[in-house]
Amino acid sequence: MTTNLTPPLETVRLAPSFRIPLGLAIASVPLVWFNVWLGLPIFLFSVFLGIQAATLRLEFTATDLDVYRGSTQIRQFPYRQWQHWQIFWTAVPILFYFREVNSIHFLPILFDPVQLLSCLQERCPRTLFVSNPNND
Asked: Which pTM does this prediction carry?
């Protein structure tokens, strides 16, 4: 008889983070004064990211990363299909990258970056991936 000493992983829903949208909005203000055609698109992009941060949620389950818009699940990414993940610029995390068997994904970090990193390390540790020296 085998017993599993590891408790099952609880589902974790990441808290939103508005750092990137607010940072872009603040940066766009002086750019609008300098050049409206440069500042306005950056400001509009920050509004878009703010709306995404307010409506999208990432949920880490025991077996999948689920993406929700409101209460509707829009995507599911099973960990068993992941080959690699990385958070770019750990000092100021702005981009989350992960590669599955058949596709790659880039997401702006519109969620709590510390909580994101913790969930990734717990549920999909990089040591599980078959890697080569050029994988990172």
From this structure: 0.81
